[in-house]
Amino acid sequence: MSATYLEAIxxxxxxxxxxxPRVFIYGQDVGAFGGAFKATKNLAKEFPGxxxxxxxxxxxxxxxxxxxxxxxLRPIVEMQFADFSIVGFNQIVNQAATLFxxxxxxxxxxxxxxxxxxxxxxxxxxxSLETVYAHYPGLVVMTPATVEDAxxxxxxxxxxxxxxxxxxxxxLYYHLKADxxxxxxxxxxxxxxxxxxxxxxxxxxxxxxxxxxxxxxxLAGEGTEVxxxxxxxxxxxxxxxxMASVARTGRLLAVGESWPxxxxxxxxxxxxxxxxxxxxxxxxxxxxxxxxxxxxHPNLWKAHRPTxxxxxxxxxxxxxx
Amino acid sequence: MVSSVLSRxxxxxxxxxxxxxxxxxxxxxxxxTLDDKFASLYRAGKLQGGVFLGRGQEALSVAAGLALRKGxxxxxxxxDLAGRLAxxxxxxxxxxxxxxxxxxxxRGRDGNVHRGRPREGLLPMISHLGAMISVVNGxxxxxxxxxxxxxxxxxxxxxxxxxxxxxxxxxxQAAVEKLPLVLVIANNQYAYSTFTDRQFACQALxxxxxxxxxxxxxxxxxxxxxxxxxxxxxVARARGGGGPQLVEAHLLRLCGHGEHxxxxxxxxxLKSSEMGRDCLKVAEEFLLKQDWAGRDQxxxxxxxSIEKVDQTVAQVQREAGPDPYREDWCALASKHLSEPHPS
Lengths: 321, 343
Ligand SMILES: Cc1ncc(C[n+]2csc(CCOP(=O)(O)OP(=O)(O)O)c2C)c(N)n1
Ligand SMILES: [Mg+2]
Prior knowledge:
The complex is a heterodimer of chains A (321) and B (343). Chain A contains 12 helices and 14 strands. With 321 residues, chain A is α/β, with parallel strands linked by helices. Chain A folds into 2 domains: 176 residues, Rossmann fold; 129 residues, Rossmann fold (3-Layer(aba) Sandwich). In chain A, α4 links the parallel β4 and β5. The mean pLDDT of chain A is 97. Chain B is globular, with a radius of gyration of 20 Å. Chain B is an alpha/beta fold and 343 residues long. A 5-stranded parallel beta sheet of chain B has the order 1-2-3-7-6, sandwiched between helices. Chain B has a two-stranded antiparallel sheet with strand order 4-5. Chain B is built from 12 helices and 7 strands. In chain B, α7 links the parallel β2 and β3. Chains A and B meet through α3 and α4 of A and α6 and α7 of B. Thiamine diphosphate (TPP) binds next to β4 of chain B. Magnesium ion (MG) binds next to β4 of chain B.
């Protein structure tokens, strides 16, 4: 059975619900309606009483999930858009993320955040918040880029004993397809070499992986072999895989869709610089969205985020350095 | 209210009412004794961080703690020592958490009033006001999903915290889900230094209950009998399937916001009003008047409380603090996913 990224997310939830009676889904419009993106389509019917519509109360949605987790359940919380998770931010970072450390009682909750920009969505339906959540201790932050990972990592998230921020990219929902869903998954926290190359390493994740792969193909035609690392999980960050790749290529370009101040790409550059300075043949570079809210109009939106065009330009520059 | 009950009650009922009152009084006394001890340790510079007392709120708090039973859920706040003890928190947990002892439930990672044992239904508050209510909802929701009947959850809140978005979201959520939540508002007239007129514009906080579709109750927080009566009824109603209950208690905070605060802003007229009565004194007078206890008995109970507190403090003072070299510095239960700490 072929599946899209979105279908993979639905299938993973169906399987989690079927295999573990402690799992339930809570979020706005997730019940009979099947969710704003249809990620829970038919699940309320297949699993009566376990896929539950919530009021528009992100704070209380997360709080309820924490209480349920304390009592031994494993909630999946669907935020309608990642942007709205900020209303529940306090409960995520101060309640869910501190519980285990403070009390030794684990807090297994999967927070599904439909994230990332899509044309025409504007400042409040386009945010990439992995950086913000990764800053707080006590959370695992996943950013799957493929259909296989959307499926396997979501299943892994539900079985983890910790709160997981599962950033699913809306741009990948419908376009990305796989022939079949995987039976095995890489371990959580392990990055993947998505393409092998010897001249330059691009480290990225989520939708930007696909832009980077386009760039690698394009630069191959110019005689530059780009290695592409898909982080998969931004926290924990698989520094070893990144460092090993930079050891082979001597050049690093970190690409992310979130804002430029601090964040995942800055973290990668900082780690490679401090732990692998001697591996570098050129100053490490990074590319992010611009430091403004995400714009509405397609012309502006396309120029706001990194694209194959801007990534290729940065990569060519880096090779010449 | 109490007197009308009195006239119709049987001998056995009267005896049990007397017993409950005495039990409640003794928890209040223990809480007051321990609070006084914390205050003096704070003044002596023996405690790290803040000290927050429940002075004047023991009657309300103990009534909430006693109305619950094993298996129930309680999310106390900063003025709930009496309720905690009545619900089953050991004195040593409180003392160890104030001292940051490695042997306490929070092991020095969190302190003072931020303590609990989630698996035993005692939720450890985070500081962010209003945030615990929906967590209680979550436990109640889980019980229902697991088919466990009869659990009640009590969440404490102050007048100030009723202004938070979290309060609104959580009580509405409880109402939508028809959860057996009892939300106890201690309207002690002040939120830190802010008087209620800068906090809300409704006549009474209990007026919010019908707006949320929940049952509302008002109680005199200085009167233990009234507190026991109302809290027992509200908890029974929630347990019987009556959905969320909102209780507003009228009382006055008889201490600073914390021990760092001299509360010079509290209106002296409030202090001399009925609301400013000390619930512990009122309870003692009631015990004497009813002839449920004599002065010697009260003195004896006081002595017992002091001994318990002194003994526990002496024990905890000898315990080691947490060792930073033995701390694992890992916030995740999944240790293998811990980020490395560059040295
Ligand atoms: C969300 C939030 N904002 C501010 C504070 C700081 N703060 C702690 S207690 C307090 C006053 C609380 O007043 P009230 O709710 O009436 O409770 P009381 O102290 O009177 O028992 C404030 C402002 C906080 N803990 N949480
Ligand atoms: Mg107050």
